[in-house]
């Protein structure tokens, strides 16, 4: 089912294939009239994205997606962040430097595994945005070392595979505090990617994030099955977190993901969701 909103999309500022304004144009053409940009570790695309939203007459919300220091995959989205906020800027600079340190180490490992690629080739593919593993995958596909992106991960770069290299990340507390100090709203992205065992473990984490100041849960995600979507929705309600929905659209980088698609039976009233987000921000200003 395609929806008229999407709170999780990427652009060329990170590992998406469309520029921020092209994402907005595509959203408008696809009748996705509320869309939020959540590039990995950068807000570089936000100003262009928000401007394009005004031009196209759709609601384009600026945001960011931050990888959190955690044994599994934990990503935190921040919506309505002030991109000029000093704390946000210095936090993002830290994670961007961590990428710059990690990326050549991945190249080294790939080279040792017989994958002949260079950092220059990868930077070129990334086109000036934050360089992520999907860019490595793109070069590997182009040069015929793997037949698709998935294989680049499952054979080489996924966690536990021979060319995986970890990078320094922000702690949960720091990341949430940083989003909040930039006036933003923290929402835990695709909770299913935490890959925890059983409801109890999820409840523990949701309680913890709530205590840290996270306000929403991306209950509906293209990373989830319909059953997971329904379960996360229930847990979000239980922990008084509002539910958002996002496709994690990356354009051609992840061709199987479509804008506005994140499962069947999506129960999100988008206008009250935006109202809730705005209300939280206004109330916080009064404190
Ligand atoms: P990075 O932030 O550079 O570590 O790269 C993480 C990004 O790589 C994620 O946001 C996804 O876009 C992509 N990714 C991670 N794991 C996989 C996988 N197993 N298959 C395909 N893409 C993946
Ligand atoms: Fe990505
Ligand atoms: Fe993510
Ligand atoms: Zn994402």
Characterization of the model:
The structure is a single chain. With 287 residues, the protein is an alpha/beta fold. It folds into two domains: 190 residues, Alpha-Beta Barrel (TIM Barrel); 65 residues, DNA polymerase, domain 1. 45% of the residues lie in helices and 13% in strands. The chain contains ten helices and seven strands. The chain has a seven-stranded mixed beta sheet. α9 links the parallel β6 and β7. α5 packs across α6. The longest helix is centred in the middle third of the chain and has 27 residues. The mean pLDDT is 97. Bound molecules: adenosine monophosphate (AMP), fe (iii) ion (2 copies) and zinc ion.
Beta-strand content? 5-15%
Structural class: alpha/beta
Largest sheet: 7 strands, mixed
Tell me the total number of β-strands: 7
Strand order of the largest sheet: 1-2-3-4-5-6-7
Question: How many structurally independent domains?
Answer: 2
Shape: globular
What is the string of SSEs from the N terminus onward? EHEHEEHHHHHEHEHEH
Distance between the termini: 40 Å
At the first level of CATH, the class of the largest domain is Alpha Beta
CATH architecture of the largest domain: Alpha-Beta Barrel
Give the name of the CATH superfamily of the largest domain. Metal-dependent hydrolases
Q: What Rg is obtained from the alpha carbons, in whole angstroms?
A: 18 Å
- Fraction of helical residues: 40-55%
Number of helices: 10
Ligand catalogue: adenosine monophosphate, fe (iii) ion, zinc ion
Average pLDDT number:
97
What CATH calls the topology of the largest domain is TIM Barrel
List segments where confidence is low: pLDDT < 50 over at least 5 consecutive residues: none
